Amino acid sequence: MADTDLLAAAFEDHREHLRAVAYRLLGSMSDADDAVQDTWLRLTGTDTSEVANLGGWLTTVVARVSLNMLRARRHRHEEPVGDSWPGAAEIAAIADGATGPGAAPPSRAGDPEDEAVLADSVGIALLVVLDTLTPPERLAFVLHDMFAMPFTEVGAVLGRSTDATRQLASRARRRVRGAPNPDRADDLSRQRKVAAAFLAAARGGDMNALITLLDADVTLTGDSYVSGTGRPMVLQGADRASRGAMLASGRAAQSRLALVNGSVGIVWAPAGRLQVVLTFTVSLASKITAIDVIADPERLRRLRLAVLPDQAATGAAGSAT
């Protein structure tokens, strides 16, 4: 077996662990896959003959890559979810089987069931809280509390002392323990099911299913970029709102569930460029009472977004209808 084959086999043994670490750090499945791909490329360009613990080395690398992505995300407000959609390398891997010389070894991680399990193991409520932490806090908490990495090694990733790293994790731990409460977690779960059912109905062009999700007095609003007339749009009532929603059903196939400012919504970002965001107000009876359609670039730039694994949420859609 060639050296590259041995290296690929060794990397594959650690892939799922690396992906789990990256997902918990980044909160996006696509970002996590990008981080793992970057880790593979760094591995192929490194002399590993002196590496005694390959698993530890790979975990450190994927953590550093993820930290850089978190920091870049904080500063790149003009593209809030740009890296949450597949990049060129990932699209090529999907289309061509990633058989080129620079591609990572084949992955089993693309299975939707695997993505659902990984996402649910973190929990949507925890993702909301993790998204409020600073990148160093998030990394210290995830690596130490969730993956039992010693503070000395976490500090090496962050470039900080062991004591400073311990303080970061402690501060993050207090914030995680303080929220979300069970009611908040239940609310997010309800939002996710309703939003997934809404997206499924739009994709299938099922007007009846869409109407059943809407409160009789639902209000759909859209900014001037949505209406195309230069004026905001307001549609009142389930019948009018559902017809308005169905007009955009052509975008549903490329739309994804996402956390939008801490609540579950839907984003449309063809080719990774954010174009439209839908936010929902969901009642305790699991009815949508308000829909806000956002396409104004200035409003879009101010949103905090994290894409959710679509298949995981869609699988839960049936229980919402």
Mind explaining what this structure looks like?
The protein is of the alpha+beta class. The chain folds into 2 domains: 3-178, Up-down Bundle (Butyryl-CoA Dehydrogenase, subunit A, domain 3); 182-320, Nuclear Transport Factor 2, Chain: A, CATH 3.10.450. 56% of the residues lie in helices and 13% in strands. The protein contains 15 helices and 7 strands. The protein has a 7-stranded mixed beta sheet. The chain starts with a helix and ends in a 6-residue tail after the last helix. The model is unreliable at 77-121 and 311-321 (pLDDT under 50).
Whole-number mean pLDDT:
78
Overall body shape: elongated
Percent of residues in helices comes to 55-70%
| Low-pLDDT segments, ≥5 res | 77-121, 311-321
> Order of strands side by side in the largest beta sheet?
2-1-6-5-4-3-7
What string, H for helix and E for strand, traces the elements in order? Answer: HHHHHHHHHHHEHEHEEEEHEH
**CATH homologous superfamily descriptor of the largest domain:** PhyR, sigma-like (SL) domain
Q: At CATH's second level, what is the architecture of the largest domain?
A: Up-down Bundle
Distance between the termini: 53 Å
Give the DSSP E fraction (strand runs of 2 or more residues): 5-15%
What count of structural domains?
2
Our count of helices gives: 15
CATH class of the largest domain: Mainly Alpha
Would you tell me the structural class of the helices and strands? Answer: alpha+beta
